Amino acid sequence: EESANHQGGTATADFEIAPADLSAAQVTLPSASYDYTGGTVSPPPAVRLSGRTLAPGTDYSVSYGGNVGPGTATVTVAGTGNYAGSRSVTFEIVDRRPRAEMYRLYNPYTGEHFYTASSYERDSLSGIGWNYEGVGWVAPKSSNSPVYRLYNPYAGDHHYTTSAGERDALKAVGWNDEGVGWYSDDARGVPLYRQYNPYATIGTHNYTTGKGENDMLVSVGWRAEGIGWYGMK
Question: Which of 2, 152, 159, 197 has fewest C-beta within 10 Å?
Answer without folding.
Answer: 2
